[in-house]
């Protein structure tokens, strides 16, 4: 139900935005590289006065041992509104000393505090109270997420915040269902296993889905009885601090959840390498994931869960309903400004329907509404910051320089903020940078294929393996593709369907382990075998 609800909410939002785009007034234009055509984008919202976010920022300090405190150094860093590039607030800047304080609090809460010793039912009740508080404060949370991240408010309010709450309801349900096994063994022994909490979990979350990634990490760790030190992304620290306060209101004991704001080298690295942290979970880029893995290994060889980058193929077969395929492929790539690790960023289209698909994909991109994400009907807000904005523009230039055909887009929108035109390239080849690298932006690369064996080979010819999409009416084709594609998730005739119970993670350099569902619990448990001799047993 949750997966269907999230998918439907997103689809309704997209549909409403699509219908409203045709009547929007105002536009931005870009002269294409050949200098002969101009494509116009519906960007009325970008040219109007920006909406003042309907939320107050109340927490900018670290949460350590149940108290909101300044950084040990007294330093702060600015966090920005990506619509304008202007400062929203100054947030405590964490470093190694703050991590040490947070880990000490988490260790004491695990070794001496009530959380691991509390009945699983009582832990479940606290998680449920927290989920209810999230629903009560959903509008403030959605507004804060949009303000700090730039994603559409309708997306945050109607899809992501409800899923955030759903995830904690889900893990609350698991808390009192975690148990070991009785194991038959040769000889007169009673053998059973215990599933024990792993201890202090270090967690590092990204900026593209701050709330949802918080839930993916914190939910299973708490359900299993662990304590946590969480480092939020330096670009988006605000919602993690807001929900940490809600956890306090729900009755979470001090020290069980500690939240430190700061950047990777000064706060993330000390957390990953800390000798008193028992496990690390990280979501972010593959290159940073390698560093996390090395730091964990060089310290106390702590286990690591990694959810990393992707370059997911979205494969449209010759029997596809083209209109439906165009809309789904558009959503698979442009959702969340293209800032999605599993984005369908390599759109493979069968040669028999390629030309038709290109024209319709271009038309759909041109109608995409880009602007102030707080405005109703806006489909695409700004990129997260100037660094990501410039990175995406560099990849667009690389696509043009490599002789891919720029069908539409290719430039910035407006004179302030980090808005980029929805961009579509055709005639893309496998060896082009835009077909190989994770761009993490609104850039659709469309490639042509002839047959299934060819497209499977090409789709798998990447260092990534996070997700894939297949669009076909033929069940035999679907069955063949789902088994042949080397990816952690394969969506058939859908995309970005997420549910609390559906595991998510990657093959190859897209990560280690799985998040969500029952599989995520394994990340936060130790298995202990207990063997006891039996004297004159009645049975074995």
Task: Give a verbal description of the structure.
The chain is 39% helix and 21% strand. The chain is of the alpha/beta class. The strands form 7 sheets. The chain has a 7-stranded mixed β-sheet with strand order 16-19-20-15-14-21-22, sandwiched between helices. A 6-stranded mixed β-sheet has the order 11-10-9-12-13-23, sandwiched between helices. The longest helix has 22 residues, at 153-174. It starts with a helix and ends in a 7-residue tail after the last strand.
List the helices and strands and how they pair.
Blueprint: H1 2-21, E1 27-31, E2 38-42, H2 44-47, E3 62-64, E4 67-69, E5 76-81, E6 86-92, H3 96-111, H4 120-136, H5 138-149, H6 153-174, E7 182-183, E8 189-197, E9 200-204, H7 210-223, E10 227-231, H8 238-250, E11 257-260, H9 264-272, E12 279-283, H10 286-298, E13 304-307, E14 313-316, H11 322-334, E15 346-350, H12 354-366, H13 386-401, E16 405-408, E17 412-413, E18 419-420, E19 423-426, H14 433-436, E20 443-449, H15 452-460, E21 467-471, H16 475-484, E22 489-492, E23 511-512, H17 517-521, E24 525-533
Parallel strand pairs: 9-10, 9-12, 10-11, 12-13, 14-15, 14-21, 15-20, 19-20, 21-22
Antiparallel strand pairs: 1-2, 3-4, 5-6, 7-8, 8-24, 13-23, 16-19, 17-18
Helix pairs in contact: 1-6, 3-9, 4-6, 4-8, 5-6, 5-8, 6-7, 11-12
